[in-house]
Amino acid sequence: MAEEQRVQKSPSWAQLVTPLLQRLLSHVRLSNCLELYRLALVYGLPDLRDACLAFMAVHFHQVLCQPQFPLLAPPAPAPGDVGLKQQLLEARMAGTPVLVALGDFLGGPLAPHPYQGEPPSMLRYEETTERWFPLASNLPPDLENVRGYGAAALHNYLFIVGGYRASSQEIAAAHSYNPGANEWLQVASMNQKRSNFKLVAVHSKLYAIGGQATSNVECYSPEQDAWNFVAPLPNPLAEFSACECKGKIYVIGGYTTRGLRPWTISDKLKMSRMACCGTVRGSRESGWDGCHGILFSQGIQSPFEGNLKSTGNMPLARVLPPLRPY
Question: Which key words are in the record (predicted)?
């Protein structure tokens, strides 16, 4: 009888482990969050479970890439149940949307109020005061002086992809801003460098559409952190618009460079000139830049036909820095 009483009074293994697991509430990390979440479900620890869910919602895309995640989040949960992935996504999307602007805001209509020191590169808009305020984060050094990039929001992450640097060199790098953790992360780069393209979010994926003189399209999956080529555009397009509607991507407007006449370099002028203008000579329009005479015919309108025809493009691209909403 005494032996039975001693056995009954001895603490169980669960009673010994529970206090240890409770101490882990402040030690949830990307390397252990999925395992701690599983243990919290096994031993019925709601505090640890909620701590893991909150952490995984903040670091949603990084958690999706973990090989253990599919084991805890079956693709087809029971009827009426909310799967782990959907539960994390709903928690991540909770809150009031905020408009964010990227760029150089020293002066001008978007100058923040107030700011001290170096001008910020990221601003948030406050509707109550109708003013722009500095965000607690700035662009990473890799994104400084990058223009012509694609930007889109996916799962409450802001993605900045591709573009070109001041040297006109195109890049394929991709970065994401996580407002929950207030941090920038570098994700997988595209397979092809591109600029002046459109980035669209559709069905939990990103699509990099076209670009300067290219027609291919790439798709980014957060689960694999990888880009893959998908169906290309019918023709290379430039200066077009793209949007998503009911799961479909619509490409609107733009122009194609296919079939246009190439540029040719004429003889040099005898004297260098600045701020010159062009004039019509015969059937061609001549323009001079520095000491080289460049022959071009772009956007010629015939008074007899009454319409505008697109021909060769200028040799140098001129693109305004984009202002992207978040």
Answer: Kelch repeat
pLDDT of residue 44: 86
Could you tell me if residue 298 is inside a domain? no
User: Is residue 72 a contact partner of residue 84, using CB atoms and an 8 Å limit?
Assistant: yes
Tokens describing residue 133? 């305020």
Closest to 163 measured CA to CA, from 153, 175, 171: 171
For 119, the token pair is 């001008």
Residues 124, 212 within the same domain: yes
H helix runs in 44-133, sequence order: 46-58, 60-64, 69-72, 84-93
Beta bridge partners of 122: 102
What gap in Å lies between CA 177 and CA 251, rounded to an integer? 26
DSSP H or E run through 281: strand 279-281
Other CB atoms within 10 A of residue 187 CB: 20
Which residue is it, tokens 């997988």?
A: 188
Q: Residue 104 domain-assigned?
A: yes
From the list 141, 181, 184, 187, the residue with the least C-alpha distance to 161 is: 187
Question: Is the entire prediction scored with pTM above 0.90?
Answer: no
Q: Which of 93, 120, 141 is the last residue of a domain?
A: 93
Sign of CA dihedral 39, 41, 43, 44: positive
Is 112 domain-assigned?
A: yes
The pLDDT > 70 percentage for the chain reads 65
> Can you give the length of the chain in residues?
326
Find the DSSP H helices in 65-205: 69-72, 84-93
